[in-house]
Structures are given as structure tokens and as C-alpha cells.
Amino acid sequence: MEKIKSVCVMRDLVKAVAQLQDTLQERFGLSLNEAMTLCCICDGTASAGEISENTGLTAPNTSKVIRAVEEKNLIVRQYGSKDRRRMEFTLSEEGHRRLLRLKTEEIPLPDLLKPLFD
């Protein structure tokens, strides 16, 4: 029975994260993965590998998310300062504004997730 209960708790957690994702999309025009990507870049620059490592996304998913935030003009792609073969990403002015909103505006959380943010 314990294994079934664990799966049921995971189901509820996945539903709560989906609710949070819907809220982020409605209020900020961002998916959860896009918001996490902006957070990864907030302190300067990050490579795709660093974004992947810090978000837990696979390399192909990271590429899709990077492309999506680039299309929204939230990040800027540039050649690496030390290695021109490496691409680095920084926040655009709009990316900084959107991230500031994420950090400062109240985001209603599903009840199941509230204890994680106390």
C-alpha cells in the first residue's frame, strides 16, 4: 500500500506544479521552465550546459526553452568571452524586467506547494 500512496502523492504534486505553471503563463507569459531559465541567467551569463544543469532539463529540452525565451526577446545569445565556440546567454532589458516581476509580485501557490515556500 505504501508504494501506491507514494504514487498518489506524486500525482497531487504534479497537479500542483501544473497549476503553478498555469499561473505563471497567465500572469507573466512564461512557462515554469522559461522562468527557471531566467533565474539561472540572473547573475550574469550562462551557457546552455549550465542552464541544463541548474534547471534539471535535458539538453534537447534546454535548447527548446532557450529558443522560446529568445523568441520572446528575454535573453541575448553571444559568443563566449573566453571560448568563441561556446554560446553564452544574458538577460535582455525585457528579461530583467520580467525576472524582477517574478521576484517581487505575489504569486498564488497551490495549497500543496505552500509549505515549501515558508
Describe this structure in words.
This protein has 118 residues and is mainly α. The chain is built from five helices and three strands, in the order ααβααββα. The protein has a three-stranded antiparallel β-sheet. The radius of gyration is 16 Å and the shape is globular. The longest helix is centred in the first third of the chain and has 27 residues.
Number of strand elements: 3
Q: Could you tell me the radius of gyration in angstroms?
A: 16 Å
Number of helices: 5
- The name of the CATH architecture is Orthogonal Bundle
Low-pLDDT segments, ≥5 res: none
Would you state the CATH class? Mainly Alpha
Q: Spell out the helices and strands N to C.
A: HHEHHEEH
Overall body shape: globular
What order do the helices and strands come in, and which of them pair?
Blueprint: H1 2-28, H2 32-41, E1 45-47, H3 48-55, H4 59-71, E2 75-79, E3 87-91, H5 93-104
Antiparallel strand pairs: 1-3, 2-3
Helix pairs in contact: 2-3, 2-4, 3-4
Features:
mainly alpha; three-stranded antiparallel sheet; Arc Repressor Mutant, subunit A; 118 residues; globular; 3 strands; 5 helices
Q: Summary?
A:
The protein has 118 residues and is mainly α. The chain contains 5 helices and 3 strands; from the N terminus they run H-H-E-H-H-E-E-H.
